[in-house]
């Protein structure tokens, strides 16, 4: 669901879809996106999509770069690169310019490496990359097998590309999956990933005893995917009739992850099957508190309660619970109509009926922010994090509110906590030196960013902030070098293109600045900051007529920005 006040494309550089989330529909993203839950529909993104090891997705997926650890079915389209990691499973067709396949990945379908952009001309992603798809050299990397096959500009080779790729994909599936001996020197997480991948193949073959043995080894490693390994082990034990072992592992899982809804449901099923109805009620009730809109789950709870009550089912209990989706729809409608006071009233009524629903507190935080009740919004987002500790957007919004309230220490602690939850996500960590910059502690911020760059030399997120700090500190040459480095790592970094274009405002080569600015707007259309850059460049080129519609569009997008209105007056005076 999305409010009418939200942009067509999200503006966040990083988003997260937790492993307890289940959604169906259409999803768009920009920047980085981590998918770990269950999704059915269409995903389309401008940036990097990582499909986590616990993810299950069905439908069409399009992204610039795609890293696959989980289970998907449908069409995968990677504009630039596709990386199929150990343990992943995909059923369906794949199109990509570059592909890397682990020998422990499994592909059931057709892998295509086209010589021209797939899809229609209207698709934003393929239009931007048409020339890159037309390049005559396509390379398929089979990293796990240690083999590289290059397909060059030989006229007769294109007819056999698809057949070759099918055979290579089949070959990748047929590599022997030896876990312990050849991985003795590998890291704990690599070994865990190998066990999980091999166990997935055994499960597909319905060899559940072998899968359980592999998953037991994965659980003992206690790596980054230990919760996934324990949950899958419990499922396999349940398939084998080892219910007590399954229940034991589920209880351990729920101690570590109290919000693991899949674990709650399976535990309730096992207790109900064993006739332990009181314990089944506790498990199902906990799951309902996390997902009150799930009618099937609520019916299970009612059936078990009926067994305890001698066959009397509580028909009124379900009627008393309002529809979560209706509440959320109503709140979003009111916010879209600029009626935040009414939205607060509606969401508070929903919370009274569903006091443990994090989505309601999230909307409460949004509504209170709209009416400038900063303290109330902070409390609402704090409650979201209590109920859903992996909700990254809640950390971002709470941190921003704490910063606005000058509660800097609390904001830093919040960003560190978010960074600890998702170590691969540097966006939260980078916010800490930004706080120091706002407090005019540029030297400290500079040292922090240098240390981060040392730890993550290829992170464009860190480099962009370092470049901006250097620019604000009057070190134009050093700043420009950093932004050029960003473009080496990511040729389609709109922020770097915009900043490099701005360097030409004072220079002689205004045409080059216009070219860079237009590229930034091709990648991120209707970005007010980029519109202003191009308008200023046209003004410096003595073309104020071209500047005026650009800055007018920026004002439409940000009507409260006074600077853009000053720019408009300047351009109009120059036109006379």
List the helices and strands and how they pair.
Elements: E1 14-17, E2 22-35, E3 38-51, E4 56-68, E5 71-84, E6 89-91, E7 94-101, E8 106-108, E9 111-112, H1 124-128, H2 130-133, E10 138-142, E11 147-151, H3 161-174, H4 188-204, H5 208-221, H6 226-239, H7 243-256, H8 261-273, H9 277-290, H10 295-308, H11 315-320, H12 324-336, H13 340-353, H14 358-370, H15 374-387, H16 392-404, H17 408-421, H18 427-438, H19 442-455, H20 460-472, H21 476-489, H22 494-503, H23 510-523, H24 528-540, H25 544-557, H26 562-575
Parallel strand pairs: 1-2, 2-3, 3-4, 4-5, 5-6, 5-7, 6-8, 7-9, 7-10
Antiparallel strand pairs: 10-11
Helix pairs in contact: 4-5, 5-6, 6-7, 7-8, 8-9, 9-10, 12-13, 12-14, 13-14, 14-15, 15-16, 16-17, 17-18, 18-19, 18-20, 19-20, 20-21, 21-22, 22-23, 22-24, 23-24, 24-25, 25-26
Commentary on this structure:
There is one protein chain. The chain has 576 residues and is of the alpha/beta class. Among the domains are: 14-174, no CATH class; 181-311, Tetratricopeptide repeat domain (Serine Threonine Protein Phosphatase 5, Tetratricopeptide repeat), CATH 1.25.40; 494-576, Tetratricopeptide repeat domain (Serine Threonine Protein Phosphatase 5, Tetratricopeptide repeat, Alpha Horseshoe), CATH 1.25.40.10. 57% of the residues lie in helices and 15% in strands. It has 26 helices and 11 strands. The radius of gyration is 27 Å and the shape is globular. 41% of the residues are buried.
């Amino acid at each position: 669901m999305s409010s009418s006040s939200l942009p067509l494309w999200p503006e966040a550089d990083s988003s997260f879809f937790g492993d307890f989330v289940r959604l169906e529909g259409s999803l768009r993203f920009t920047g980085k996106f981590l998918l770990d839950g269950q999704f059915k529909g269409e995903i389309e993104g401008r940036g990097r999509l990582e499909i986590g090891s616990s993810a299950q997705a069905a439908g069409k997926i399009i992204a610039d770069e795609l890293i696959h650890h989980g289970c998907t079915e449908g069409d995968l389209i990677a504009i630039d690169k596709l990386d199929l990691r150990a343990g992943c499973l995909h059923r369906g067709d794949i199109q990509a310019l570059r592909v890397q396949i682990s020998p422990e990945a499994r592909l059931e379908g057709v892998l295509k490496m086209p010589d021209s952009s797939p899809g229609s001309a209207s698709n934003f992603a393929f239009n931007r990359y048409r020339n890159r798809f037309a390049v005559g050299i396509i390379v398929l990397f089979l990293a796990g097998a240690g083999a590289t096959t290059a397909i060059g500009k030989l006229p007769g080779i294109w007819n056999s590309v698809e057949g070759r790729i099918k055979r290579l994909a089949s070959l990748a599936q047929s590599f022997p999956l030896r876990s312990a001996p050849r991985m003795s020197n590998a890291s704990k997480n690599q070994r865990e990933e190998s066990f999980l991948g091999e166990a997935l193949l055994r499960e597909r073959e319905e060899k559940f005893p072998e899968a359980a043995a592999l998953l037991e080894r994965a659980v003992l490693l206690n790596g980054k995917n230990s919760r996934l390994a324990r949950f899958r082990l419990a499922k396999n034990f349940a398939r084998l009739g080892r219910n007590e072992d399954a229940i034991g592992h589920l209880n351990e899982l729920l101690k570590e992850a109290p919000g693991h809804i899949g674990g709650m449901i399976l535990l309730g099923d096992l207790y109900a099957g064993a006739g332990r109805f009181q314990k089944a009620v506790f498990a199902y009730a906990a799951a309902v508190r996390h997902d009150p809109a799930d009618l099937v789950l609520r019916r299970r709870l009612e059936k078990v309660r009926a067994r305890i009550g001698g066959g009397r089912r509580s028909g009124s209990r379900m009627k008393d619970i309002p529809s979560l989706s209706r509440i959320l729809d109503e709140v979003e409608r009111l916010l879209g109509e600029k009626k935040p006071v009414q939205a607060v009233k509606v969401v508070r009524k929903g919370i009274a009926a569903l006091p443990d629903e994090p989505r309601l507190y999230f909307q409460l935080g949004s509504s209170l922010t709209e009416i400038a009740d900063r303290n109330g919004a902070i409390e609402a987002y704090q409650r979201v994090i209590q109920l859903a500790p992996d909700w990254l957007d809640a950390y971002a919004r709470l941190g921003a509110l704490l910063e606005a309230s000058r509660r800097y220490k609390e904001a830093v602690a919040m960003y560190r906590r978010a960074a600890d939850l998702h170590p691969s996500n540097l966006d939260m960590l980078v916010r800490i030196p930004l706080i120091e910059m706002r407090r005019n502690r540029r030297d400290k911020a500079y040292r922090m960013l240098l240390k981060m760059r040392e730890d993550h030399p290829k992170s464009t997120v860190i480099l962009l902030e370092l470049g901006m700090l250097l620019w604000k500190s009057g070190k134009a040459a050093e700043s420009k070098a950093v932004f050029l480095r960003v473009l080496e790592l990511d040729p389609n970094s709109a922020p770097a293109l915009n900043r490099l274009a701005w360097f030409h405002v004072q220079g002689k080569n205004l045409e080059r600045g216009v070219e860079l600015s237009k590229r930034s707007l091709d990648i991120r259309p209707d970005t007010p900051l980029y519109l202003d850059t191009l308008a200023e460049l046209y003004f410096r080129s003595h073309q104020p007529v071209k500047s005026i519609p650009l800055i007018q569009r920026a004002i439409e997008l940000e009507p409260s920005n006074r600077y853009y209105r000053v720019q408009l007056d300047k351009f109009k005076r120059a036109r006379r």
